[in-house]
Design a protein that fits this description.
OB fold (Dihydrolipoamide Acetyltransferase, E2P), globular, alpha+beta, seven-stranded antiparallel beta sheet, 12 strands
Length: about 140
């Protein structure tokens, strides 16, 4: 597993480095989506999570959810056109799960891409260390504690 500045990035996931999101293929054409450890490290403890409703189509670069921490409020931008097929209601009830179990119970939504080739824009976990090191340097983020 790549570790960049103390932040774990499991190599079995795909990453949208620009938007700090991870994507896990579910084997049925859908993907589970969550915030990376880098995103939760930069945001701090999450206090609210509000996802778009299941059945909603979201265009690439648009928000699939709104995330709020003590120091940041903003969108979780999806990497490709997709339909939201499930929302993690447990995360809505307990947003801190994104901090404590980033790559497990802290997932945000499950999506079905409009086009199977859409995921080609994502970076495989085995190749993500370099791009994340560059992004963290550009964002002046020291790393995960």
């Amino acid at each position: 597993m790549p570790v960049v500045r103390g932040c774990n990035l499991p190599d079995d996931l795909l990453y949208d480095v620009d938007n700090n999101l991870w994507y896990r293929p579910n084997g049925d054409g859908t993907y589970t989506v969550g915030m990376t450890m880098i995103a939760t490290g930069m945001a701090g403890q999450l206090v609210a999570f509000t996802a778009k409703k299941a059945g909603k189509t979201v265009n690439a670069g648009k928000s699939c959810a709104t995330i709020e921490s003590g120091k940041w409020v903003g969108p979780a931008k999806i990497a490709f056109d997709a339909e939201i097929v499930a929302v993690n209601d447990t995360l809505s009830e307990n947003p801190k799960l994104a901090n404590s179990d980033t790559y497990g119970e802290g997932w945000m939504v499950k999506v079905k891409p409009s086009d199977d080739s859409a995921v080609a824009s994502l970076t495989p976990g085995t190749a993500v260390a370099g791009p994340y090191e560059a992004k963290m340097a550009a964002d002046e983020f020291a790393g995960c504690a």
